[in-house]
Amino acid sequence: MSNETSQPKQPYLDRYQPADEGIRFMPGAAFSYGKLPPLPDGILGDRILRENLKTDLLKGPLKLDDVRRPAFTIDELNDLTAYWSWDLWDQLSLRASEGSSGLVPRQEYEALSFANAFYRWPEFMIDMTERLGIDGVVELGRSGREPASKINMLHAWCLGAVTQLGRALYIIMDRHKPDEFLPELNAAMKFWQALAYGYRGDGYLWSSQDRYRTCALDEAWTTRLEDSMEPLAGDTRAGFTSLMASAELLSFYLHLDNRLGMYDLGPFVLGNGNPMIVRSTFTREDIYSWSMFARDLPYAMTFAFEIDAAHMTLEEARVISIGTLMTRPRNYVNSIVKGSVWVRDEWDSELRQVSLQDAISKYLTPVGDATGDVFEWMTRTPSRHLIESGAFTYYVGMIMPFMRKAGLYDHYCEHENLWEFDERAAQV
């Protein structure tokens, strides 16, 4: 992030002052949890929550020695559960409509994936930790500090959140007691902690702990992307925003109408005081059979763009942990003034810049065609098949990038039945 003292003052920059409490995106709303005081959303909610936790685990940035400790205490697990509970409310209530879909049975496939992940993920996490060591898991997270990688804050966050949600599902249904499966929960939370610590690089585990910033790019990439952006005007501006919107829609459809195919990084404050956002969309994922409709598209497309903060009178910009830019006022698209397009042809190939004109002319129509084909496939697919396919986008899709990068994905498929449902989860 550039030195803020030399920048023209924009209202949203006040959010990064230590004493600032942010603005309320949900004015009047508060989250209740146990004996904690009512918790508002945003920067203030994070501060009140962390001040009232029982342990010091989340009071400040972690150090590597904290991550290396073999297990959390019971009190620390309770503090993590409390933070996860508020964090889920804080993020997902802003995206309340995203949990349902007219295309696929979202709630059904999410429940199936939560149930299955709680039984299966810990065994994979324990095995990867034994193979790589905890420092190796940290490095695995750190390896994603570049655009267009599914080793990112979203996927790391999902491993922790879904483990917690799977556990909650079984407790709510009276299938488990709160004190059951604690070693598995502890192992899963340590694995998530190591990934998030390595990826973020600032000692925090949620973007809300750092005033909703996820600037997890190495400095060379930040500079490279900033220098790559071109002014947007007329047809070029319309083409850029259309291509980005089309790639976003395709990424949602390919991941069965959930957001695992897209994530934002930032805000990166530029020298002129404007924020830069780096948005990656995954327009092909070959582990899913329906990705054949996107066989001629790149694996990922990344859009770097600058927002004119003064033009939109930007008050606050949040990049929440699930990789979504949220702003007040809400509409930032009309204030995008610069942009660039990058593509990654395969998941492990180099990211390369494509000129705006070439990207628009080459990809806009094929992306739209692929989106239509995936939409038609979903409308023709029986509900039960969509539920199972959607569950795989969560249960396999969330942990797969880390397995793949570690060279273990094929092993888990061939020897550990990765693409199977535990019978206990299937009964749920």
Provide a short characterization of the protein structure.
Strand 2 (262-269) and strand 3 (275-281) form a beta hairpin.
Describe this structure in words.
It is a single chain. The N and C termini lie far apart (47 Å). The protein has 428 residues and is an alpha+beta fold. It is built from 14 helices and eight strands. The strands form two sheets. Strands 1, 2, 3, 4, 7 and 8 form a six-stranded antiparallel sheet that branches. It has helices spanning 42-51, 64-68, 74-92, 106-142, 153-172, 182-200, 219-228, 234-254, 309-312, 356-380, 383-395, 400-405, 409-415, 423-427, and strands spanning 230-231, 262-269, 275-281, 300-307, 316-320, 324-328, 336-344, 351-354. Helix 1 runs antiparallel to helix 3 (74-92) and helix 4 (106-142) packs across helix 5. The chain is globular and about 60 Å long. It has a domain at 219-381. A hairpin with a 5-residue loop joins strand 2 (262-269) and strand 3 (275-281).
The parts where pLDDT drops under 50 for at least 5 residues are 1-5
N-to-C terminal Cα separation, in Å?
Answer: 47 Å
Residue-averaged pLDDT: 95
Counting H and I runs of at least 4 residues, what is the number of helices?
Answer: 14
**Main structural class:** alpha+beta
Please state roughly what percent of the residues sit in beta strands, choosing from under 5%, 5-15%, 15-25%, 25-35%, 35-45% or over 45%: 5-15%
Strand segment count: 8
Radius of gyration: 21 Å
Helix and strand pattern: HHHHHHHEHEEEHEEEEHHHHH
**Mass-distribution shape:** globular
Helix content: 40-55%
